[in-house]
């Protein structure tokens, strides 16, 4: 190989290397932009979610004021008002809760009730019911009668139940814990 052929090969490799490094640096900029866009989208979603939660809380507060209910609130946002005290066993995980209930919306629409479908039964701590209902039952004794207001994030969330409960619905339960098995 002659010196001139080595120079020609070297000079032909240099542009290829330059293009390679430019491509890598451009892709790095794209990645930075994508990360920035992703971060901005996440922040926008968090702001929108906070606004939705605040709006739902305001609707719940308005509902309780109109009904003159002095409700307690858990850390998750579940509201409850025990209006008749029972004297039975306290609910705990792994017991089967049996309850009479009515469930409706803040609009006053009634959706489901044990009068139509029979008492609801579920094993506490095993899921299968709205997380807000399960949380609320753990506050009760057999014989208690309670009003629960379950925010959408503790009920059926963004999708509803596919039947009567619409998307993003706040549920109003009237419950009597009749038995623990």
Describe this structure in words.
This protein is of the alpha+beta class. The protein folds into 2 domains: 1-68; 72-180, Chitinase A, domain 3, CATH 3.10.50. 41% of the residues lie in helices and 23% in strands. It has 3 helices and 7 strands. It has helices at residues 3-66, 114-117, 131-137, and strands at 72-73, 79-84, 96-105, 110-113, 120-123, 145-150, 171-180. Strands 1, 2, 3, 4, 5, 6 and 7 form a 7-stranded antiparallel beta sheet that branches. Mean pLDDT is 88; it is low at 2-11.
How is the topology of this model organized?
Layout: H1 3-66, E1 72-73, E2 79-84, E3 96-105, E4 110-113, H2 114-117, E5 120-123, H3 131-137, E6 145-150, E7 171-180
The main β sheet shows up as:
7 strands, antiparallel
Broad CATH class of the largest domain:
Alpha Beta
Number of strands: 7
Give Rg in angstroms: 29 Å
List the quaternary state of the chains.
Answer: single chain
Number of domains: 2
Task: Sum this structure up briefly.
The chain has 181 residues and is α+β, with helices and mostly antiparallel strands. The protein is 41% helix and 23% strand.
């Amino acid at each position: 190989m002659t010196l001139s052929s080595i120079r020609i090969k070297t000079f032909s490799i240099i542009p290829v290397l330059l293009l390679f490094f430019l491509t890598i640096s451009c892709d790095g900029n794209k990645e930075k932009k994508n990360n920035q866009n992703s971060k901005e989208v996440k922040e926008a979603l968090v702001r929108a979610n906070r606004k939705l939660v605040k709006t739902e809380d305001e609707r719940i507060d308005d509902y309780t004021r109109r009904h003159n209910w002095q409700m307690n609130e858990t850390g998750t946002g579940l509201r409850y008002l025990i209006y008749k005290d029972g004297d039975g066993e306290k609910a705990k995980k792994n017991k089967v809760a049996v309850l009479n209930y009515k469930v409706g919306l803040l609009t006053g629409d009634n959706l489901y009730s044990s009068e139509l479908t029979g008492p609801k039964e579920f094993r506490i701590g095993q899921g299968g019911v709205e997380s807000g209902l399960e949380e609320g039952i753990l506050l009760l004794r057999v014989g208690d009668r309670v009003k629960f207001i379950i925010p959408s994030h503790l009920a059926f969330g963004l999708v509803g139940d596919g039947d009567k409960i619409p998307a993003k619905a706040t549920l109003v339960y009237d419950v009597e814990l009749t038995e623990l098995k």
